[in-house]
């Protein structure tokens, strides 16, 4: 029981993995961050008209900005070990780390199938599809993303050298309508993300000219 019964329940951030063809949840396709990171860095690279172009194009946008997200998450086996969790006792946090790592690996079955096709003389094999990845950071921020960077620092080990504590650095790129098909589920997921931003922006109460020390724009 919580020592502070009146305190709000803290939600967790995480990653949801969908089948890229059917957009159904993959087995074990929800990866919840054990501890929310203290900071989350976002960078938006604006897609605008080229410098030196026509002056009439100066304010035009050519598409949604390229948004990148970076965060550091911690994974620790302490709580599971205290609870006597059998998997953690045997493997430490290796299963959690592997669940993250395998997002960016093509499935071994696909690699084997492609090899078999190559042995049969198939000339062209399509690039392998990764899971369709959603980054969830509250109900108001659910973004389709591609993992662009994954760095893992293992910091403690058990006698069998299973990792017990690690820091995971994630780099994500939000997939926009420029990357996805507008008319299918992937595009609708992005559009929902952008519309939520617009809804939040509509709740912002703008300032006044007097706060800027001016009476208006003439």
Automatic annotation (TrEMBL):
Domain of life: Bacteria
Descriptive protein name: Uncharacterized protein
Origin species: Paraburkholderia caffeinitolerans
């Amino acid at each position: 029981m919580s020592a502070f019964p009146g305190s709000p329940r803290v939600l967790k951030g995480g990653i949801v993995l969908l089948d890229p063809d059917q957009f159904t949840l993959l087995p074990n396709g929800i990866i919840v961050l054990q501890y929310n990171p203290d900071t989350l860095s976002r960078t938006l690279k604006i897609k605008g008209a080229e410098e030196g172009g026509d002056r009439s194009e100066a304010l035009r946008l050519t598409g949604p900005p390229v948004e990148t997200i970076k965060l550091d998450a911690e994974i620790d086996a302490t709580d599971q070990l205290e609870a006597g969790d059998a998997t953690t006792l045997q493997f430490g946090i290796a299963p959690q780390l592997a669940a993250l790592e395998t997002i960016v690996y093509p499935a071994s079955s696909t690699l084997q199938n492609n090899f078999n096709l190559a042995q049969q003389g198939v000339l062209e094999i399509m690039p392998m599809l990764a899971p369709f990845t959603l980054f969830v950071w509250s109900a108001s921020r659910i973004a389709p993303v591609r993992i662009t960077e994954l760095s893992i620092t293992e910091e403690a080990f058990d006698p069998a050298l299973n990792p017990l504590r690690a820091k995971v650095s994630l780099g994500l790129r939000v997939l926009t309508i420029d990357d996805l098909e507008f008319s299918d589920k992937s595009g609708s997921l992005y559009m929902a993300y952008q519309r939520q931003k617009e809804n939040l922006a509509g709740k912002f109460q703008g300032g006044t000219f007097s706060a800027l020390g001016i009476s208006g724009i003439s």
